[in-house]
Amino acid sequence: MAIEIVMPRLGWNMEVGTVVEWLKQDGDRVNAGEYLFMVESDKSISEVEALDSGTLRIPGNALRMGEELPVGTVLAYLVQDDEAAPPTGGNDAPAPAASPAQTAPAPVAPVAAAPASAERATNAEQDRVRRRRSPVASPRAIRIATALGVDWTKLTGSSRSGRIVEQDIREAFARQGAAASGKPADAAPVAVASTAPPAPSPAAIPLSPMRRTIAERMARSAHTAAAVTLTTEADASALVRVRADLAAALLARGDTRPMYNDFFVRLVAVALRDFPELNASLTDEGIVRHEALHIGLAVDTERGLLVPVLRDVQDKSVQTIAGEAAVLIAAARAGKTPQADLQGGTFTITNLGMYEIDAFTPIINPPQCAILGIGRIVARPVVIDEETEAVAVRKMVVLSLTFDHRLVDGGPAARFLQRIKQYVEQPIVWLTA
Amino acid sequence: MRELTYTAAALEGLAEEMERDPLTFVVGEGIGARGGNFGTTVGLYERFGPARLRDTPISERGFTGMCTGAAMTGTRPIVDFMFVDFGLDALGELLNQTAKIQYMSDGRLTMPIVLRGCIGIGNSAATHHSGSYYSIFSHFPGFHVVVPTTPYDAKGLLKTAIRSNDPVVFLEHRAVLNLKGPVPEEEYLIPFGQARIAREGCDATVVAIGGMVPRTLAACETLAAEGCSIEVIDPRTLAPLDIDTILASVNKTGRLLVVDEDYGPCGVAGEIGMQVMERGFDDLDAPVTRLTGAQAPVPYSAPLETAITPDTPAIERAIRDLLTA
User: Would you name the residues of A annotated as active-site residues?
Assistant: First the structure.
């Protein structure tokens, strides 16, 4: 369809502008990004570039040069090779100027020609049909479904109009609980479901928005994921040495000192290359394996748990990761994490080693498939040779991997954890990988 | 506790305030020796004399303007319009002077005036004696708008109205004037902007205005027998409106019906529904609905009058609809 070239609004106050020169001529082939014409508004003269490619068609051959025109006035068209000229095109009369009352910015895709509006109408109709087909839920139902971790899109609404209402969500939740516990739905406890909740105890602390979000996400994870946690112990002595060496070198250069987490991020990235099934999400359409690897770091802050996300770690060195992680963690602790930094993670790492925790059962950060918990690195006596019964003191770490059994089976998850263990024990392999 | 009718309770409140403050006085048609068309001043003429119970000719604009001037000097006039429909003749004074004088004087003048009158449809009173008009007074800045529905509220809110230094429109629905209810002997006042939860429930919220409150409560009795638990809120004052109480109830029930005898378009029911949509959207399990009077002049014919007014069966139907909506 022909793309309209309109008088642009170059500033908030601009109502009219004047084309002082066309930089392309009628019939010229134009590529997106090339300058089309110069426009003069009250403050300045600016070049206006093409946002699309095509053949330029100026009705009335630049008749409008030098004339003050309202913002939004159609000046020309870009047409494609296989396309007829626009109805007003060629050397016909100029396109009608926008009416004086219509000084609002031009619509993004103005209705240029009859075919375009017909196409739009069809789309709108399809939209309506699609909306009619897809289930509709009340705002309250959606809110409660989110809190309880119920997938309302698969439910049938019980209201007269077919809208899914609170009761449908609660019944679905009770069925979920019953299915999980093997009890009949009626017997399933519906803790959050009472419509007349007991009066809150005066000592109850109201949920902050952040706490509420954490509660909803954790409950959703616990209610929906088929979570299994595997633990293994790895000899981190080599990793400790590598980190000490690298830290000393980087510190000498004034770079950020890498934390153990930064090494774990890197080695998880390398391991996930061979286990894409763990870098995945379960969606309505099925299991989506993510190309990119965005790793969330669980950060304990005064306000609560935050999980800022390191982007594209598959392409990053430990050193780069260390620098970026330091910035993310500082922002999280200061309560200044932008919302965008909390979204899009594909795998999460959580570390409780600093609190002398060894093994634990991390909760998956939905819709991710898995989360790796890292325990403390601690010196222990370890049998290093069964034959000779030789024992040595080694720096050991327990790794806890929680994965969603709906997406991946125990075998691959165990092999993935084993791979991480191997990498921890031979860091040179993955550092140079 | 003793029981009084709505009118007797309000009368008692008025007498107490007249006793308390010699600057209070009542102006209106037939409010002197006659004691008011609705008995609003029975016995006060004998007690406080003709200077403080001032009968007037049929000249609403004139006496409303004079009372506005009197209030500017610091006295506390109570203008008794009988039917508030008659106050329309004084609307220019009310909206342009009474409601604006504090603003225009930069707060140097106060406007301690009460404008009271009977509202509501019933008894074949026909179209000149049946209006509600509270949407008008709630729309413009400057008025408190009070619509009590119980004897207790009538007395407590009238006393607050008389002591207020702002103009107060005090509207008494004809359907509640003879209802009896408990009224304590000891003095009390009820602040503006506090809704009353007339009935507690958890399946749906009904906000009922003025004369719709007793009808809604009657409908809820029937529904309760079937296990439906309906919360009924009487806003008591429409300006200021206690939207927080309504929102808290909708948070509990997820469903809201507003029952208002007044006309629907641009009315208080629409205003309440809109505020709930703006602030309580995520609590809503069904669209907010309203049941209002038909937008027509009120007919004299009793069957037609019934047909255009929300009655108890209509309210019951509307609640049933809401519960399955």
Answer: 405, 409
Nearest CA in chain B to A198: B252
Interchain CB distance below 8 Å, B282 and A161:
no
Q: Which of B74, B89, B73, B96 is nearest to B28 (CA)?
A: B89
Residue A91: pLDDT above 70?
Answer: no
A60 pLDDT tier (thresholds 50, 70, 90): low
| Distance of residue B252 Cα from the nearest chain A Cα, in angstroms | 7
Enter the pTM of the model: 0.54
pLDDT tens figures, A1-16: 788 888 888 776 778 8
Rounded to the nearest 5°, which phi and psi values hold at A163?
Answer: -70, 140
Q: Cβ B286–A143 below 8 Å, yes or no?
A: no
Q: What is the pLDDT of residues B249-297, one digit of tens each?
A: 999 999 999 999 999 999 999 999 999 999 999 999 999 999 999 999 9
> What distance lies between CA B231 and its chain's CA centroid?
20
- Over the stretch A316-340, which tens digit does the pLDDT of each residue have? 888 899 989 999 998 888 888 887 8
Q: How far apart are the C-alpha atoms of A424 and A236, rounded to whole Å?
A: 6
Least Cα separation, residue A142 to chain B (angstroms)? 8
Q: Which residue of B252, B284, B324 is in closest CB contact with A138? A: B284
Which of B283, B284, B285 to mutate to test binding with chain A, by most A CBs within 10 Å of its CB?
Answer: B285
How far are the Cα atoms of A202, A262, A337, B80 from residue A342, in angstroms, in the given order? 33, 18, 7, 63
B39 HSE (CA, 13 A, CB side): 11
